[in-house]
Amino acid sequence: MLFVRKETLLAVLSALLSSSVFVFAVHADVGSGTSGDERDIVSASSRRQLKPKSKKSKKTDSPTAMPPLFLSFPFLIVETSRTTIDATTTTGTPPNTMTEPSFIGTQSIQMADIYDEECIILDDDGIGFEIICPEPTGTYSRTSQVDSGVFPVVETQSSSLNLCFPQPTLGGCIFLKSGGEFNFDIIDSESPPPGTYISSGANTGVVFFGVEWVAVETAIGSRAPAGGVEVNRLDLTVVFKEDLPTIIQRNMMLGELLPGFIPQEGLPLEGTRSNGASSFPFAALLP
After folding, report:
1. Given this model, what pLDDT does residue 245 score?
2. Better-scored residue on pLDDT, 236 or 284
3. Which residues have a Cβ under 8 Å from the Cβ of 52 and sit 6 or more positions away?
C-alpha cells in the first residue's frame, strides 16, 4: 500500500479534475496506527475514462419557405406580318444528290403589336376589331419550327417568343421558350391550341431582369379569313420568390452603375416609341 501526503494528493486531484478527462476514486482510510499525514489513499486501479457531456442542441424550427407570388397582366396582340420559311432535305451523295421540300424544319415567323385590353374593341365574332389607342404598348415576335409531323398536321414544334416594351428607363424585353406536342392541322383546324411560353429570368430591363415570366397565348374566336388580321389574347404572368421591389431596386442600381444595363427599349431616344410612365403596363411592380 502506497501512502502520500495530503497536500500532494489535493494538488494532484485539483490538476486532474481541471482537465475533465480522467477522474479517480478517492477512498479515505482513517485507521488506528496511521499518522495524520497518511490518511488518504488513491487506488489507481479505480481509474476510468469520463465521456465528455454532450450539450443538447436547441431545436430550431427551419424557416418557412415563402411561396412564389404571381401577378398577371392581360394584353391583346394584333398580327402585323407572318412569314413562312420552307425547309428542304438533301439525299444521296455528290454528285448524285437530290433536294426535296421538307415539312419538318419549316419555320413560321410572326410579328404583332401588343395592346392593353381596353385599347381594342372586338366584334362579337372575335374577328373584326377596332383599335382606339394611338400606339401599341409593345412588340411581339415569335419564331416556331415544325419538329415532327406530316403535312398538314404539326405534331410537335418548338418556339421562341420575344416581347419588348419600350419605356424610358423601365423598358426592356422578355425572352421566352416553348416546345412539345402541338397537334394542329394548319389547313382545317379552326384555331391553334393555347401556347405556353416560359422565361428563366434572362431578360433585359429594370423590371424584367432576374424575374421569371409565363406567357399564355390563346385565340379569340375563329381564325381570320385568308389575308385577314388575327387578334389573340396574351396573358403575361410574373412569378417571383423574393420581394420584387428589392429586385427592381437592385436593377435600378445596376442601371446607374453598369453602362449598357439599360437596353435600347429603355433609352429615351428621339423616335423611340413610348407611352409615358403613367401608362406603363407593369407600373404595379414598381417599388
Report:
1. 81
2. 236
3. 20
Tell me if residue 219 falls in helix, strand or coil.
strand
The burial of 24, by beta-carbon neighbours within 10 Å (0-12 exposed, 13-18 middle, 19 or more buried), is given as middle
Mean confidence (pLDDT) of the chain = 78
Which grid cell sits at 31? 485507521
Range 93-114 burial, b when 16+ CB lie within 10 A, else e = eeeeeeeeeebbebebebebbb
Cell of 170: 423601365
Cis-peptide, bond into residue 95, ω within 30° of zero: yes
Q: Under a CB-based contact definition with an 8 Å cutoff, are residues 82 and 232 in contact?
A: no
**Distance (Å) of CA 217 to CA 7, 148, 174, 233, 234:** 92, 22, 15, 6, 5
